[in-house]
């Protein structure tokens, strides 16, 4: 998202993967507070006098708690300002000692982080007062105690023009997964009278390249290692079934790529061409030019 408006309004704004706009805007304007946030400046300004309680489903009590947190964070900013000035002056007076410069940078970063929290709280309180019914809250627990809360808007229509669409006089929303354009317009606050919808047929032929769901495990970074044996076993079966054909294994990270390479059986490794960040194009060309079933 463009927070500072450096781009200005352009003639045309193009948004790819536009089916994600609602979620991204919701995340952008949401408020998350954790017990860690309350204590992050404790080394400099002392421990907070606010207790992270569980108010259950009583949203008014949570709102009062959030307001108290806002005042607490604002007070932290007031306390941190003289620390920053003192550290900056000391760093200038003793340039040979990098400790003061490092501390100054750390506290300045902390000040900016807390300032962002204050801004998010102020935004939430303002928006909540306009339309309380548009906000929902989730609580995260650890050891049967609330560790963080998240407040998100149900509808984001009030925020699309304010934070996104103003960047273009005309807006093109592109996606391969729009299920209902009318519903999308309603969710994003787009007047149907100002909308044209083009449905383009896909060039993908499922008869030539069918997709088979193997469901062998979760491929995200958090769960990939847990399922690596199942994943590589399935890859080996695919390689056996297509022993004379080329293929590509898509990985979401270098870490996952390395897990596959290190776990797969030795007899299959000769077919693998491993791209590195500096030679992706070279590896792809080698794969395409090779007569072997890489």
* Rg estimate, integer Å: 26 Å
Span of the ends, CA to CA: 40 Å
* Topology, number of strands: 5
Overall helicity: 40-55%
Order of helices and strands: EHEHHHHEEHEHHHHH
Provide the structure class: mainly alpha
How many helical elements? 11
| Overall mean confidence score, pLDDT | 87
Q: Low-confidence segments, ≥5 residues, pLDDT <50?
A: none
Strand order of the largest sheet: 2-4-3
Approximate strand percentage: 5-15%
Anisotropy-based shape: extended
Description:
The chain is 47% helix and 11% strand. With 294 residues, the protein is mainly alpha-helical. Strands 2-4-3 form a three-stranded antiparallel β-sheet. A two-stranded parallel ribbon has the order 1-5. β3 and β4 form a beta hairpin. α4 packs antiparallel against α5.
């Amino acid at each position: 998202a463009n927070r500072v408006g450096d781009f200005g309004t352009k003639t045309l704004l193009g948004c790819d993967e536009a089916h994600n706009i609602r979620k991204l805007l919701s995340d952008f304007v949401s408020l998350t507070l954790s017990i860690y946030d309350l204590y992050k400046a404790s080394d400099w300004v002392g421990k907070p006098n606010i207790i992270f309680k569980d108010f259950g489903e009583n949203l008014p009590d949570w709102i009062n708690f959030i307001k108290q947190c806002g005042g607490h964070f604002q007070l932290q900013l007031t306390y941190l300002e003289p620390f920053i000035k003192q550290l900056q002056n000391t760093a200038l007076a003793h340039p040979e000692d990098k400790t003061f410069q490092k501390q100054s940078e750390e506290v300045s970063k902390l000040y900016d982080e807390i300032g962002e929290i204050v801004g998010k709280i102020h935004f939430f309180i303002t928006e909540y007062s306009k339309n309380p019914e548009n906000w929902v809250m989730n609580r995260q627990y650890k050891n049967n105690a609330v560790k963080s809360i998240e407040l998100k808007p149900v509808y984001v229509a009030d925020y699309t023009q304010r934070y996104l669409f103003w960047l273009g006089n005309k807006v093109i929303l592109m996606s391969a997964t729009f299920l209902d354009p009318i519903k999308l317009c309603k969710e994003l606050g787009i007047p149907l009278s100002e909308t044209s919808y083009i449905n383009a047929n896909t060039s993908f032929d499922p008869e030539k390249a069918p997709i088979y769901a193997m469901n062998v495990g979760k491929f995200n970074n958090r769960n990939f290692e847990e399922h690596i044996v199942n994943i590589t076993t399935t890859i080996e079966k695919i390689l056996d079934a297509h022993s004379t054909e080329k293929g590509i294994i898509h990985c979401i990270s270098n870490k996952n790529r390395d897990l596959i390479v290190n776990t797969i059986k030795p007899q299959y490794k000769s077919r693998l061409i491993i791209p590195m960040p500096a030679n992706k194009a070279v590896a792809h060309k080698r794969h395409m030019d090779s007569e072997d079933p890489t």
